[in-house]
Task: inverse folding
């Protein structure tokens, strides 16, 4: 069976049956494009000609110039692809013994509370600023992925009950409370700006001045511009605001299970990364107060 045909079937499966996000599908597709390109150079076009040693060679080659996290993701994409083929066509899976460890333990970057306050204080009462403020408040104070925010519908946002009903990865729904301070910002957009921009009926909660869908690229570029304007040199993205939401909740005493539910993580281990962030900040504070720990021999 031709690999190219199976690749197209696999992408359809990700989109239709597994309800993967467009970003996830894009990443899988990019990884598998490189993998299939390698197989093509080796003269392999049929899936039954793919052997474990060949896959292992490809992974080892990628390891020479890619970060371990990228290689681990690529291996995961390849495993998923062959698992799909094996299940659908009852063929042997050549990735069964493939093991790649992600050695990197990069901690998520996040904005401090002061930095978040700086960002939110930038906006004026101009219509465009009201929209932008509402977008960033929703992402930060509700811990949304940027795509979840831009896809929100009017029926998912209950301003009276102060809750959002969010459809996350795998179409899993979670209910998130809207904090009082954020509620006023979101209501201001919904009551005073959205009606002015509504050109035709749409269920989208966030729309631009042409009455159309807000893109994730718009939000990313907007927060980058705001950070430059307020003098924040740290690279803050919409997803970093989500990290900030989780980190600030943990620092405020929230338990991991609650944060897991609010973020929509299927695995608690994904949420546990924020405990490492907290430990690193504690160590940093401790070192600042006790400089002798950094090699200072002066007696106190």
Result:
């Amino acid at each position: 069976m031709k690999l190219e045909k199976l690749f197209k079937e696999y992408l359809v499966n990700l989109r239709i049956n597994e309800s993967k996000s467009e970003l996830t599908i894009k990443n899988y597709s990019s990884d598998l494009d490189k993998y299939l390109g390698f197989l093509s150079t080796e003269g392999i076009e049929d899936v039954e000609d793919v052997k474990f040693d060949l896959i292992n060679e490809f992974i080892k080659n990628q390891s020479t110039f890619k970060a371990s996290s990228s290689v681990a993701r690529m291996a995961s994409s390849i495993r998923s692809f062959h698992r799909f083929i094996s299940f659908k066509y009852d063929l042997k899976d050549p990735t069964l013994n493939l093991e790649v460890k992600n050695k990197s333990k990069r901690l998520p970057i996040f904005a401090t509370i002061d930095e978040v306050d700086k960002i939110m204080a930038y906006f004026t009462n101009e219509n465009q600023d009201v929209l932008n403020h509402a977008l960033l408040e929703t992402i930060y104070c509700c811990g949304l992925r940027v795509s979840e925010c831009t896809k929100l519908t009017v029926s998912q946002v209950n301003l009276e009950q102060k809750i959002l009903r969010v459809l996350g990865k795998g179409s899993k729904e979670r209910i998130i409370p809207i904090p009082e301070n954020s509620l006023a910002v979101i209501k201001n957009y919904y009551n005073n700006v959205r009606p002015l921009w509504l050109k035709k009926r749409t269920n989208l909660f966030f729309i631009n001045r042409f009455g159309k869908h807000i893109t994730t690229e718009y939000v990313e570029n907007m927060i980058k511009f705001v950070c430059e304007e307020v003098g924040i040199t740290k690279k803050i993205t919409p997803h970093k605001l989500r990290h900030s939401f989780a980190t600030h909740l943990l620092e405020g005493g929230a338990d991991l299970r609650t944060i897991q539910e609010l973020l929509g993580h299927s695995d608690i281990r994904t949420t546990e990364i924020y405990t490492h962030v907290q430990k690193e900040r504690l160590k940093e504070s401790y070192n600042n107060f006790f400089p002798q720990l950094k090699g200072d021999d002066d007696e106190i």
